[in-house]
Each structure stands twice: as C-alpha cells, then as structure tokens.
Amino acid sequence: MKIVVLVKLTPDAAQAPAVERTLHAANEAACWVSAVSFEYFGLKGSVRELRKLCYGELKVRGFGAQAAQHIIKRVADAYTTLRANIKAGNLGPEQSKRRRKAESKPIAFRPDAAHTYDDRCLSWNYDAQTVSIWTLDGRIKNVRFTCSPKALKQLTESRKGESDLIQRDGKLFLVATIDLPAPEVFEPKDWIGVDRGITNLATTSDADNYSGRRLGRYRRWQARKKAEIQARCTRSSKQLLKKRARRETRHATHVNHKISKTVVAVAQRTERGIALEELRGIRERVTVRRDQRARQSSWPFHQLGAFVEYKAHRAGVPFIEVDPAYTSQRCPRCGHTERGNRPTRDHFSCRRCGLAGPADHVAGVNVRARARSAWVFVNMPDPEPA
C-alpha cells in the first residue's frame, strides 16, 4: 500500500531563491500548457498531443526533459480528473453554474502548487538528511530536510517513486511516496458500523460516540479570535493572522486521527471489519441555511473516512463502504423505513414496532447490517459458465 510522508526543506539563503523560482516557473508553465490544451482540445487534451505542441517551448524556457514531461503530464491528468468529476456529477447537472464555470475556462495552477520530481531530478541522502534537487539554476546539492525519526525510517526503508515539491505559508516541503507491504486481510467475525455526522463526528454500532461538541466550540472560538484580529487592521495583526493560519485545520486533523486510530484498534482487537457510509457529493446535493454553510463546509467527514480506510489497510482490517440511503430512518429490527421514525435529530422511534434509541447509534447498526450483506456478495465466487 502507498502512503505519503511530508518532510520540510530547510535551504540556506543561497539555495531557497532558486528552488522557489523553479516551483513558481513550473506552475506558470503549467498554466500556459493548460491554456494551449483548452484552446486546441477543450477538456480532452492528451499527453501525446500536448507534447507535440508544448515540449519545444518548455525546453526554450529552461526546463529539462524530465521537468517538461512532468509539467505536460500534470496538465493532462488535471483535465482527466475534471472530466471524471463532470461525468460523476460532482460539479452538478449540465446547466449548473459551477459546472458551466469549470467547462468555460482552462484549468489554472497556483504559484505554490505541487510540482513532480522523479529520481532523475531528485536524489536523497538519508544519513546526512539532505537532497540534491534540479532547478532552473542547475542542480543544487546538500539541501537539508527535517522530519520525525519515524518518517526518516520510513523514507530509508520504503520510499519509492515520485515526490512532490510544494510551498505552504512561505515554507518548502517535499511529499514523498512510501510503498509499504500490505498485510493480509483477515476474515472478519463481524462488522463495526460507523455513522459520521456533524454533531457527533462518529458513532459506532457498539454505541461508542465521538462527539463533535468540543471541535465545534473550538471552531467558534477561532472564528471570534480571527474577527477580533482582523478588525485591528495593523501590520502586527496581519502577522498574527499568518502565524495562526491552519491552526484550526491541524486541530481537526488531530481529532480525526485519534478517532480513526481508536476505531481501527477496536476492530483489530475484536477481529471485526469496519463499515462506513459512502458519502460523496454532499456539499453539492444538500442545501442548508446561510448561517449553517460554514459549519457544513468545514465538516471533515471525508478526511475521517480516508484516515479510517488507510489505517485499516495498514492493520489488515477489512474495510467496506455501503449505501448510506435511509440508514437513520430505517428500523434495524422490523425494517420499517419512514421519515417519521426520526422525530428529532438525536432520537429514533420506529412507528411500527416501537424500537427507540439514539438516532446515530441506530444508523451505525444499519450500516453494520448492510456490511454483512455486502461482504457476502463481494467475496462470492464467480458463477460457473453454463
């Protein structure tokens, strides 16, 4: 299985300008290639056709052969992803404003967006914790990087493939790919159903509840502090805002890591699999009140699902996603499904058999029941030909 490790580059005063200039120039060139692709091919530009049109100009701009190839491939991959999102309906129906906006102009790349380096352009010295990296000013050696001892061990033992150079808040980072051997997935004795939400970040079929109250309170406190600092309109307030940037994101990521780690540990200890609802496109499908938009947009449900999935794969725990339709309105005992079964957000009460309980726990039980059925079909042998 593949994961990524983030390491921080610490170039000296002579090295940093060359690396930053190369990254910005690469993204500027990617924008130019994207404009050419959109002009000639619309959203259907391919690597082969773009290479014929753009490779020579990229060489004239000073990019090496590998760097030019990576820029062209990045643009082609970006349009492939855009077409896939349109086909899947993630940008709305054909006449929606968001989809028309995406189809009406070429894809743009931020100046600090990731640029790909392979082993021909980037080499690692793990003992000295330095890298040798290609730039427009030539090859720069002995660029130092820092990371945790665990990350350094993973780099030394399992780094494989390409790495991405990015710039975030004025700092340079390398995102390296780690290829770890995937453990054998055991046959689950049962399943743990996990229901994700805003008020309760996760609720399992075992009735374990991970409330989002503290995270919501923290976000509201951060919003008030940010408004107070912005109201000052001074140079020091801008510096303070920059210093506090991404603090809320890091906190939410930390919370999701703790929840996912606990859920996977319980599943591994009890030899059960983990089942989640397949939640995609919620922001495009669901309309909420104006005062609730920020809360919904900052809901990190996708990140929590991704953390649970990759931690489960690393531990050899079976993982499956099931249909989320009506999991909070269906009675797990008699199967009756009705909106009236959930009179309030927190409570479930079946109008047929009278089963009652916390709504999120009932949803987790329904997710577990669907995982039991889905796992049978996933592992069913192919039928013999007639």
List keywords for this structure.
single chain; 386 residues; alpha+beta; five-stranded mixed β-sheet; 12 helices; 20% strand
Can you describe what's shown?
This protein is of the alpha+beta class and 386 residues long. The chain has helices at residues 16-41, 47-60, 65-88, 97-103, 149-158, 213-232, 235-244, 247-270, 282-285, 293-297, 301-315, 359-378, and strands at 2-9, 115-117, 122-125, 130-135, 138-146, 159-168, 171-179, 191-196, 200-204, 209-211, 273-277, 319-322, 347-349, 356-358. Helix 2 packs antiparallel against helix 3. It starts with a strand and ends in an 8-residue tail after the last helix. The mean pLDDT is 89.
Give a topology summary.
Blueprint: E1 2-9, H1 16-41, H2 47-60, H3 65-88, H4 97-103, E2 115-117, E3 122-125, E4 130-135, E5 138-146, H5 149-158, E6 159-168, E7 171-179, E8 191-196, E9 200-204, E10 209-211, H6 213-232, H7 235-244, H8 247-270, E11 273-277, H9 282-285, H10 293-297, H11 301-315, E12 319-322, E13 347-349, E14 356-358, H12 359-378
Parallel strand pairs: 8-11, 11-12
Antiparallel strand pairs: 1-5, 1-7, 2-6, 3-4, 4-5, 6-7, 8-9, 9-10, 13-14
Helix pairs in contact: 1-2, 1-3, 2-3, 6-7, 6-8, 8-11
